[in-house]
Amino acid sequence: MDEITTTQKKNNGMATASLVLGIVGLVCCCGTLVLSVLAIIFGVLAKSEMKRSGNHEGEGMATAGFVLGIVGLVVHLISIMIWLLLFVSKTHAGRHLV
């Protein structure tokens, strides 16, 4: 009998890590900044490794993780700015100009 062999290409581990970190960084509110930055870094590293090796399995995951990392980073920075504006406005609200 002939054996049927299947070859399965492996996804890039950094692409998977980028996607997972991007999703978790966007969904969770604690540690979003760090996770989003790591998602961006892993996405860039995965893309460069794919370009170097020629194996483009997981390229979509790397791109999605990179984009989610950028979105998470922007959302987190906007929330920090809003929080700071609210904090400053509350501290100055008690002061009266004489």
Helices and strands in order, then pairings?
Blueprint: H1 13-27, H2 32-53, H3 59-93
Write up this protein.
- The protein has three helices and no strands.
- It has helices at about 15-25, 30-55, 60-95.
- The chain is about 75% helix and about 0% strand.
- The mean pLDDT is about 85.
- The longest helix is centred in the C-terminal third of the chain and has 35 residues, at about 60-95.
- The radius of gyration is 21 Å and the shape is rod-shaped.
- With about 100 residues, the chain is mostly helical.
- The chain has one domain (about 15-95).
The domain tally reads 1
Distance linking N and C termini: 97 Å
Note the beta-strand portion.
Answer: under 5%
Mean pLDDT value: 85
| DSSP summary, beta strand count | 0
Summarize the structure.
The chain has 98 residues and is mainly alpha-helical.
Features:
mainly alpha; 73% helix; 3 helices; 98 residues; 0% strand
